[in-house]
UniProtKB/TrEMBL annotation:
Keywords: Antiviral defense. One of its GO terms (molecular function) is RNA binding. This is CRISPR-associated protein Cas5. It holds the Pfam family Cas_Cas5d.
C-alpha cells in the first residue's frame, strides 16, 4: 500500500532555481525537489545543517502537476558598494533574478516503507503547524492559500487546497485530484486551439528511473543545505500529460491568487 501527500503551491510569485550561479538566478517552470524539500524542512523545523534529515526527505518520490503555468518574469536588481573577497574595490553589482508569476501547482510526495511513511506523516503534521515561515523560493514569496485543506469535505471536488494524506499512489493522485482552478476560470481557456472545446491536458513532472527513455537529468537531489557545503546529486524525472476530466473540475471559483 502507498501513502501519498498532496499539497497546493499557489502564490502570486514563486522562484525555483535549478541552475542559478552568481548574478544570474534562474527559475524552473515548476517546483524543484530541492525547493520542495526546503519547504518541508522549514515546516518540520529541520535545520539546514541536519544533512541526515534533509537526505531522508529527498528520498521521498515527487510528482508535480501544473494546474496553472504562470509567466516567467525577471527582476532587475542593483546593489551598491559591494566589496570583493578582500573587502576592497567597492562597486555596483547588477543581478538578474527570474521568477514565476501567477502559477499554481499540485505537489505530491509518495512514501515507500514504514520509515518513509512515518516521515511523511510528520511532514504533514509540520505543514499544518509550521515551525518556521513557509515561502516558495524567496522569503517574500509566501503562499496565497493553505497548502492543505483543513478537513475532508463531503465532495472531494470541493478541495480549494491539497487533500493531504491518502493511501493512493502518486500517479493516481496526479490523475484524480481536483483541479486547483475552477470551471469558470479564464485560465481554463489558455493554450487551446481556436474552436476547440475540450480543456487542454495538464503538464506533470514526476521522478523516474534514470534508464527511462524519457528521463531528463537535473542536479536537483539535495544532499546538504549546510552553509559552505551545499551539495546536490542528479535527479531523473520525466514529463507527462494529465487529462483534465469533468470529474476533476469544480463548478465554483476557488482561486485565491
Amino acid at each position: 500500500m502507498s501513502l501519498s501527500l498532496a499539497l497546493c503551491f499557489d502564490a502570486p510569485m514563486q522562484s525555483w532555481g535549478a541552475r542559478s550561479q552568481h548574478i544570474h538566478r534562474d527559475t524552473a517552470r515548476e517546483p524543484t525537489k530541492s525547493g520542495v524539500v526546503g519547504v518541508l524542512a522549514a515546516a518540520m523545523g529541520v535545520p539546514r545543517e541536519d544533512t541526515e534529515k534533509i537526505t531522508a526527505l529527498a528520498e521521498l518520490s515527487l510528482g508535480v502537476r501544473v494546474d496553472r503555468e504562470g509567466l516567467v518574469e525577471r527582476d532587475f536588481h542593483t546593489a551598491q558598494n559591494v566589496p570583493n573577497t578582500e573587502g576592497l574595490g567597492h562597486r555596483t553589482v547588477i543581478s538578474h533574478r527570474y521568477y514565476l508569476s501567477d502559477a499554481v501547482f499540485l505537489v505530491v510526495l509518495e512514501a515507500e516503507g514504514a520509515d518513509q511513511e512515518a516521515l511523511l506523516r510528520r511532514a504533514e503534521a509540520g505543514l499544518r503547524a509550521p515551525a518556521w515561515p513557509l515561502y516558495f523560493g524567496r522569503k517574500a514569496f509566501v503562499p496565497a492559500r493553505p497548502l492543505l485543506h483543513a478537513s475532508e469535505p463531503a465532495d472531494r471536488r470541493d478541495h480549494p487546497s491539497g487533500w493531504g494524506l491518502s493511501d493512493l499512489p502518486l500517479r493516481t493522485v496526479l490523475m484524480t485530484h481536483p483541479w486547483l482552478e475552477a470551471d469558470d476560470s479564464p485560465h481554463r481557456l489558455d493554450g487551446r486551439p481556436r474552436g476547440e472545446d475540450a480543456p487542454r491536458p495538464l503538464r506533470a513532472v514526476i521522478d523516474c528511473d534514470a534508464t527511462d527513455e524519457r528521463a531528463e537529468i537535473r542536479s536537483d537531489h539535495p544532499l546538504s543545505f549546510a552553509r559552505g557545503d551545499r551539495r546536490f546529486a542528479s535527479r531523473s524525472f520525466k514529463t507527462l500529460d494529465i487529462p483534465l476530466t469533468p470529474a476533476m473540475i469544480s463548478p465554483g471559483d476557488r482561486s485565491c491568487s
